[in-house]
Specification:
By secondary structure, the chain is of the alpha/beta class. It is about 40% helix and about 20% strand. Helix 2 packs parallel to helix 3.
Length: about 110
């Protein structure tokens, strides 16, 4: 079963995403801050990471950069989920290795 890691500090958003993905048959784990998110990503090597940019501890940009620089995690697709919707933020996220960028709120 494919596992998706959600790294999101807003519990309501993380749990809503978890509910919908679980309903579709995915195994989901959640980290509510950057430090635990980075640890879980390196420990579990999920099939996909949904990553918020503005996190306590370590920013989503730093997590993305770290995971893409590590040979063991560089192939994990990362989709950034964030309220930062400027073109500069999107370009920076994609340049750091994110595979896609979704601006909150979304439905």
């Amino acid at each position: 079963m494919q596992e998706i890691l959600i790294i999101e500090d807003e519990r309501d958003i993380a749990e809503a995403i978890e509910y919908n993905l679980t309903k579709e048959g995915y195994k989901v784990s959640i980290a509510y801050d950057g430090v635990s998110g980075l640890k879980k990503a390196k420990l579990k090597t999920p099939s996909l990471i949904l990553l918020d940019l503005m996190l306590p501890g370590v920013s989503g940009m730093e997590i993305c950069k770290s995971l893409k620089a590590d040979q063991n995690t560089s192939c994990i697709p990362i989709i950034m989920l964030t309220a930062k919707g400027s073109e500069v933020d999107k370009v920076l996220g994609l340049e750091l290795g994110a595979d896609d960028y979704i601006t909150k709120p979304f439905s």
